[in-house]
Fold Penicillin-binding protein.
Amino acid sequence: MKKITKKIRATNPFRNRKIIAVFLYLACFIIFGFVALRFSWIMVKGEINGEDLIQNIDNLYSRKTVIQANRGTIYDKNGNPIAMDASSYKMFAVLTDKWSSPTRPQHVQKPEKVAKVLAKYISMSEEEIVERLTQDSDQVEFSSAGNNLSYDIVSQIQEELDKQELTGINFEDKKTRLYPNGIFASHTIGLAQRQSDDEDDMAYQQLKGIMGLEQAYDDILKGTNGTSEYQKDRYGYVIPGQEEQKKEAVDGSDIYLTLDRRLQVLLENVMDKVEKEHSPQKMTATLMKAKTGEILATAQRPSFNGTTKEGIDQSWQNLLVEYAFEPGSTMKVMTLAASIQEGTFHPNNSFMSGKVSVAGGTVHDFNPNGWGQISYLEGLARSSNVAFVHQVEEMGFDTWKKYLDNYGFGEAVGMNLPNEYSGSNKYEWPLEKVNTAFGQGLSVTPAQMMRAFSAIANKGEMVKPYLVDHISNKETNEMTQFEPEYTKSLISKETAEKTLNYLTETINNEHGTAKGYKIDGYEIAAKTGTAQLYNPDTKQYYSGGSNYIYSVVGMAPVDDPDVILYVTVQQPDFNGVGHGSEVVQKIFNPVMKRALEYMSAGDEESTDTIQSETMPNLIDSSALEAVAQMQNKNLNSAVIGAGDKIVQQFPLEGSTLYDEQKTILLTNGAMTLPDMNGWSRSDVMKVAEMTGVEFEFEGEGYVSKQEFAPNSFIEPGKKVKISLSPISDEEE
């Protein structure tokens, strides 16, 4: 047998290693090439996985800040500020050194010395401040004591800290909207507030109008924010020598209104008093120049304080243009004018008063038994519904409808205020048509009534009520002037004059319903109204008690009216008066008297008629000098604080002061409570605005007792009880 043998070759280990080395070399080359390509791609494109690396680096070392535009100021007709921008500051302390460089510390290094400085300006003791400055935290705030600080306080704190080379205290400022007059045509002026407190959201750091004129003219008032962009180092400091990219802010335009602060303040004070005494559900009052439509004063209740927002939840409705109601007998002014124009009003003819049957029902006078056979002139004086039903029947329903449409009922006035109602005038059924003769069965707004009344006061030409006199653009120095807008009515000049003369009967006639509205020295055309309120639940009118809207319109002087004043008071508590008309008189009489005195005196009114002074600038004055200066002007002032220098004042510089208005001066020392005996609630709230102290009220009227004695130390966040009591006629 042949033996077979197999030859086995030995493997060369050096050859295998060479192959592996080549493979690894190629792999490394490929990987390096890939990395190089990737780095090249990143260098060229500047991004990775969708991340913009250039932008990220830029964000890391760049700082972009908002340059806030100043919102335009709203002024009254005489240049007194009504709504304006203000800055408030919040103080905080940096305690960590991780944001500091070795040569430029940003944190608090000497807490005891810092506390000694701060205690002079905020209502915290040195011990309390030291305790906060030594906490184990990156940064701390000072609660309400370090919030809402004025620019003057911040400047003084910063100046003293810099002088002693003390670090770590910072201030954050935010723009707010200040309404320095408190309750002042608040729903008509409106509100502007910040949309967000997000510092990174530039679009939402501006103030935005959310009500009234602030909302209607927001685009004109708000301006445009600018930006500032620059490079910083890792400690947050600006890198020297760099070029700052800056886009300047464009400030908003200023708006000058037709409102007269003197008359508006008087109206608000009178409304306050009536609200306290009679607690009506709603009140409106509007004073307008008869020939131009300029609204000199307008107020409503409920209302609110624009700065503190106190009362804002009671109603967001601007009653001047959003309050639709049945006007009642003040509509007879318009019926009378139409009847005179159509030749159907015969003042000496007589009719049987009490009630009259019409298609579908019966119309009664407010005295259901009537006054027997009386003349139509007496019917006007007594405000007989039956008399005016006869007028509409005689002129014809279609003719009367033409007048209603011509007066503008059922059509918005167009005052450029948000949410304006157009009212309604259905005018379908015979009884419904007849009822419009005495203001029932249609709904109107106060603005519509003012426009209609102007046809009588302005010789047959209706004028649209308006609030904005002119707009001033600070950037371009351009001015937009608003002019009166007239509409020819169906009423002739002769008819308007006759209507005014007949309306004096309501005051001068022994049976007149407006006798209580007589003002010595002036002849007034007036018409009262007592409108029923419709209950939508029962689909019937309320009856009895004070469930009415009591109103009056007055135009004066009769021979050539300068002003129209229209007042409505809904469901007041009588509280000692016999009729709702007596409540209305408490508003109408003092305001109309003052307005007529003002008009007759012209621009240079006598001091016997209207007492006024201009508020000086007392900031940085010594407290003693400021008080002396106010006393020399015969003005009352209340001083808050134990310091020696004035750092804040109310009202602001240049504001006009009237009728012993309270002036409040805040010093640089620890805050103290002034003697507020006899102050109104709104005066007390001025102290709250300036100090941050909360007041808790008991009762209604004027301050009769305060929880802490005058000159007691107070601090923000602390509640102080205030007792209010009515002032009797004897006390007044």
In short: The longest strand covers residues 81-94. Residues 14-63 form one domain.
